[in-house]
Amino acid sequence: MGDRERNKKRLLELLQAAGTGNAHCADCGAADPDWASYTLGVFICLNCSGIHRNFPDISKVKSVRLDFWDDSIVEVLILPQVAVVLQFMIHNGNLRVKAKYEARVPAFYYVPQADDCLVLKEQWIRAKYERQEFMADGKTISPPGNREGFLWKRGRDKAQFLRRRFVLLAKEGILKYYTKEEGKGPKAVIDIKDLNATFQTEKIGNPHGLQITYKREGHIRNLFVYHENGKLVPLITRNYLKQGFMEKTGPKQREPFKKRWFALDPQERRLLYYKNPLDAFEQGQVFLGSKEQGYEVCEDLPKGIRGNRWKAGLTIVTPERRFIFTCPSEKEQQDWLESFRDVLSRPLTPLNLLTASTESGHSSR
Question: Which residues pair with 245 in a beta bridge?
Fold first, then answer.
């Protein structure tokens, strides 16, 4: 067996080696990575390998299956002292390298997953390897200071995006934005503890699109913004567990089914629904408690109820009422069922318990 086939076989064995973490991308957790950074000693997915190529002085990548790995490269993946790539890979591996570069990731820091956008992944990868923010003996992370800059914000009643000034005051814990650059007070002052931000590149139609969500006068307010160069802060982000269109009927279950956009927030345990994906305010929301409190989700529709266009149904049962939905396909139905069951199986936080006592089974409309 030649060097090429022998080393490829050794690398494929490394990918499946127990106790190494190599079976998932070291950066986003995607299954079955088939690329490797032979200077860092980790296996990564195709998308993350593209990000690593942007800083070749720190990370050099090769395809495990397609590129030629000579002995000198394969040894470096195992033993950096001897500067041989395969040995460097063998003596490192994903779990060992993650323990080094992720030694002190803050509890509030959102770690991107496989299906997150590239902007978020790039910020995470650069913070880990380029800036070394999370190493135990790495650089000190300065607490975030005040930030000020311009974002393009979608108008509430009109579709166009307008340039708006945003100011983040870290010490006070507030975010403000202004409709005029000079001379007037802020249009809104948002408490950071009530704020969430998620990357929404497809929904907004921009690779750096961001959806900022916060509570205002008992409703959930959405701001849709984007930054021209993508320098967005991931510290306030958490993703919706599931989003998409479903049809719903009303509380009497005799009302016509209407198509709505739904977003499931697992942290707040809320199912929000909108007439359109880019609406500023929700039309209604459903709080999801726990199974012990009488909440459950059932596959299919109650007897005698039929959907409008879509037939794959599901029912959310709360102590107060049943919420009836239909999905555009059986796959979507199963995805929603899995997501709802995930939330219902999670233990309630003290804040969730307080919400449950005041908003149990609540729906605005």
Answer: 261
**CA 187/CA 182 separation, integer angstroms:** 12
Cα distance between residue 255 and residue 363, in whole Å: 15
Q: How far apart are CA 268 and CA 172, in angstroms?
A: 23
- Predicted pLDDT of residue 234: 44
Chain segment 280-291, per-residue pLDDT in tens: 888 999 999 988
pLDDT at 84: 46
Q: Does residue 149 contact residue 168 with C-beta atoms inside 8 Å?
A: no
Q: Which element (helix H / strand E) includes 210? A: strand 209-216
Q: Is 9 helix (H, G, I), strand (E, B) or coil?
A: helix
DSSP 268: T
Which pLDDT value is given to residue 195? 78
**3 state SS of 33:** coil
Q: Cα–Cα distance between 82 and 301 in angstroms, integer?
A: 65
Asked whether 210 and 226 are in contact (CB, 8 A), the reply is yes
Our CA dihedral for 225, 228, 234, 239, rounded to 10 degrees, sits at 40
Instruction: Please determine, for residue 238, whether its predicted confidence score (pLDDT) is greater than 60.
Output: no
Residues forming beta bridges with residue 35, ordered by sequence position: 44, 63
Lowest mean pLDDT: which of 48-62, 151-165, 289-303? 151-165
pLDDT band for 295, please (50, 70, 90 cuts). very high
Q: Residue 77 is which amino acid? A: L
- Amino acid residing at 32: D
pLDDT given at position 83? 35
Average pLDDT over residues 208-212: 83
Per-residue DSSP letter, 106:
-
Closest among 285, 300, 282, 293 to 344, alpha carbons compared: 293
| CA 71/CA 84 separation, integer angstroms | 7
Token readout for 106 is: 């803050």
Contact 324, 309 (CB under 8 A): no
